[in-house]
Amino acid sequence: MLQLWLIALLAIVYIHDDLDGPGRAAGAVAFSWGGMAAVIVPYLLIAVVVHVVCMAAGTQMDKRGSLRAVGRAERTLAASRLVVVATHGAAVFSANWLEQVRGIIGQERVLLSEFLAIVPPLLAIIAGWWSFYPMERRLRESMWVRILDDGHPAYPVPSRWQFVWSNIRHQVLFILIPLMLIGAWGHVWRAVIDGSGPGVVGDFGRWVRGSGLKDSVRMGGQLAGVLVVLAVSPLLLRFVWDAVPLGPGRMRDRLMGICERAGVRVRGLLVWRTHGTMLNGVAMGLAAPLRYIMLTDALLDQLPERQVEGVMGHEVGHAKHHHIPWMVGALLATMGLGGLAAGVFMLVFGMGAWMVGRAVPGAAGPMSTAAGGMEALAMIVVLGAGFGAFGWVSRRFEWQADAFAVKALSTEDPGARAVTAESVEAMAGALESVARQNHIARERRSFRHGSIASRQRRLARLVGVPGDGLRVDRTCRWIKGGIVAGVVVVMVMFAAEGALRAMFEPRRQYSIPDWWSTAESRREDAP
Predict the structure, then answer these.
(1) pLDDT tens digits, residue range 289-310?
(2) N or C: the chain end with fewer CB closer than 10 Å?
(3) Mean residue pLDDT across the chain
(4) How many other CB atoms are found less than 10 A from the CB of residue 338?
(5) Listed residue (221, 236, 224) closest to 290, CA to CA
(6) pTM (2 decimals)?
(7) What angle separates helix 68-93 from helix 33-64, to the nearest 10 degrees?
(8) β pairing state of 243-245 and 292-296
(9) How far is CA 110 from the centre of its chain?
(10) Helix H or strand E segment including 148
(11) How far apart are CA 292 and CA 363, in angstroms?
């Protein structure tokens, strides 16, 4: 869920820059200590509240040994991130925070200003990890006896700084680096389309502007940039996450055998070194030459071989069904359709407001102000719908990856045509181990993955079902068809908008606020 909040932090900044209308602040504003305090103090209050709750939870855990205190601290930490994002939105849209930043560093340093604008909310999130560390240390120390009894390697408990830095690397930089690269590409591409580049680049931009395809070309270039960044990100994240190749041996041969039987090519299998702090696996990369599958050190050390193969099969399932690009497509389609719906709503609202402005003297100004608020609200609804659709699709893709894993483990037996109970037991056991070692309650819901218990129940229902007749596969095919239809509709609508804009470009253009101000000026000039 944190990844979505990080996306929201940058999305708020970009939406602020893209919004037109009277609510948008123009240019940089003068720096003031009062304005700075109005932005920073709420983040400090959030950090203090989280710290106090974590301290109280730690005290209760020491006195009573209750794990409910841990759950309360985790819920407070999760809720604080939502409050941080809401505070960031209020700072950007109401307190002119982005303009204040640009007033300090200069209006021309656009990408740097966007990064600095999200630094305060990022620090508030990082402060939450700093406050939660004592709880994490207590939990890890309580597991030492069991780990030693089971004969697993016992990693030393990381220091507070190591714990915080590990979370920054694995949860913040993991999403922030690709997002900043996409943002940088967006600024470069906009400069090309605007014709501000030299030579052939400038000529291309001027041709695009004159062709009436400006919006379509801009959208296509942005999408191409997103795909390029997603393709090369594994090369960067391999070093951000401290991963090394998995050495030769029986385990590597069995894991590569799962890839070969599924027809999935990978550049390599990597050991994700977390110093025993995490049990997880991840598949990264859109194409085979840049695709890696990472398994954490603790997962390889502590899980039985069959459960490790289940986790591997799950990640191979993500690669086999190309879930990453499909999830990007789901986000783009949903937000694009939401944006079109918001545009229609604003058009209807603007026409009604224009008629009110003509009929009621002095109403144009208030209606114009209301338009800014309505447009901001519409964009928030679009973002919410996009994230909601992303989570809904992501959970079903997780179920499909779980199903693929048990099919992969079942087909190791040449005579097995249906999902076997042994393969389901292995995959369900892997989920149980991941939940236990990562201190995740089985019934706790996850926005992107669903709860561990619900996934285990779904796996249990697959025993004896033919591998080529799984319901989740049919559901995901329908989802992918809907994504394709949504993307096509969005592209057609953007192309139609560009054609209409080119057709009427020579004429006088009125935005919605222009209609109101024109109606007001005509009324004032009337005898």
Answers:
(1) 888 899 998 888 888 899 999 9
(2) C
(3) 79
(4) 20
(5) 236
(6) 0.74
(7) 170
(8) unpaired
(9) 22
(10) helix 144-149
(11) 60
